[in-house]
Amino acid sequence: MRRRRGVLLAFLAAFVVLLSACGESTGASNDGSGQSSEEPEFVYTGYIVDRKGDGILVTGSVKTNTSDDGGANHYYEATWFSNAGTEHGIGERVRVWPDGPIAESYPGQGKAGRVEAFAAQQPDGANLTEAEAIRKALEAPDAGGMFPPAVKEAEYKANTGHWRIEIAHNGEARTVVVTVPDEH
């Protein structure tokens, strides 16, 4: 009986140690100054390509090949974030700090803890900002049928007075280039 209790206590102690090792991370990181930062380690960066209420759909611009794991060879991250507020619009490049886990569906789904837009880009001589040009490109018939669209590149061509927006379709090597006149 004593031996059985000792084995049980040893098992219980090992289980507690294992549980604490698998515990949830606070997401805090050290910035090298010796002081802990309270910002989560994971930050999602991409363009807002759709929104509904306080939710935003953010897609990345960098292609990932997931075919080794049975996925697409042209895959772009995409996540719907709820609780993102209403101050950020389609076309803006943002950073999102999730508040909790991200569901592994496609697109992923999670709650935004914080959303921060990059500074608006407006090249010299352009009337539109990058975000305005991207928004117009996503509304163009040429971009139709691409869900979720991934903005690969947005470039203002001063010599023609047009924006060149390259939009990728997930799962395919195909991209669409939409030319947007630089006018309001």
Verbal overview:
The protein is built from two helices and ten strands. It is an alpha+beta fold and 184 residues long. A hairpin with a 5-residue loop joins strand 1 and strand 2 (36-37). The model is unreliable at 2-37 (pLDDT under 50).
Pairing-aware structural class of the strands and helices?
Answer: alpha+beta
Q: Number of DSSP helices? A: 2
Let me know the average pLDDT.
Answer: 79
Could you give the distance between the termini?
84 Å
Poorly predicted segments: 2-37
Specify the oligomeric state. single chain
Which of globular, elongated, flat, extended, rod-shaped describes the shape?
A: globular
Taken as a percent bin, the fraction of beta residues is 25-35%
Q: Secondary-structure element order, as H and E?
A: HEEEEEEEHEEE
Helix content: 10-25%
Strand neighbour order, sheet with most strands = 3-4-5-7-6
Write the layout of secondary structure elements.
Layout: H1 2-21, E1 29-30, E2 36-37, E3 44-52, E4 55-59, E5 78-82, E6 93-98, E7 108-117, H2 130-139, E8 150-157, E9 162-168, E10 175-181
Parallel strand pairs: 5-7
Antiparallel strand pairs: 1-2, 3-4, 3-6, 4-5, 6-7, 8-9, 9-10
